[in-house]
Write a structure and sequence with these properties.
Blueprint: E1 7-23, H1 28-38, E2 45-50, E3 55-63, H2 67-77, E4 86-98, H3 108-118, E5 125-128, E6 132-138, H4 142-149
Antiparallel strand pairs: 1-3, 1-4, 2-3, 4-6, 5-6
């Protein structure tokens, strides 16, 4: 069997910010992330989910040390984000799996997530592209999950 995983990297210096029930209108994501960037905050990952009912949830990761400042900034300086449902989780790790063959390997994501589940780690967010799968898990499970994933051929 050909090697599917080329590299695995981890980041344990993250906080996950979730903004729920945001107005699902054109330009909201642009406003949010442009303003955060102008304020000097670097966003690591972004995920948005639309319910189809004119609202969406936006989830993103930042450096853990910036957590409180980002939440305060959104609440006090970005009035277009009408949701006050903003919460965070500071004990997050991101694991990113790189591999050129990921997209051509049916069932690969299921295999990965099954191995994660066997460690007892709950996946809090998933982002993927043709050659990467990134997911957020509790920070205290990062080493164990990484060890299990490195055993895949």
């Amino acid at each position: 069997m050909e090697k599917i995983i080329d590299r695995i990297i981890t980041n344990t210096d993250l906080s996950k910010i979730t903004i729920t029930s945001v107005s699902d209108t054109p330009g909201i994501a642009s406003i949010l992330f442009s303003r955060l960037g102008e304020a000097g905050f670097n966003i690591e990952t972004i995920s948005q989910n639309s319910s189809g009912k004119n609202i969406c949830d936006i989830v993103f990761t930042i450096k853990e040390s910036e957590n409180d400042n980002v939440i305060d900034y959104i609440r006090n300086h970005i009035e277009e984000i009408s949701s006050q449902n903003i919460f965070s989780n500071k004990n997050i790790a991101m694991i990113t799996i790189f591999g050129e063959k990921i997209a051509q390997t049916p069932g690969f994501a299921g295999k990965i997530f099954g191995l994660v589940a066997q460690t007892g780690a709950n996946i809090e967010n998933i982002t993927a592209s043709l050659m990467t799968i990134s997911f957020l898990i509790p920070e205290d499970k990062c080493q164990e999950v990484t060890k299990v994933l490195k055993q895949i051929e």
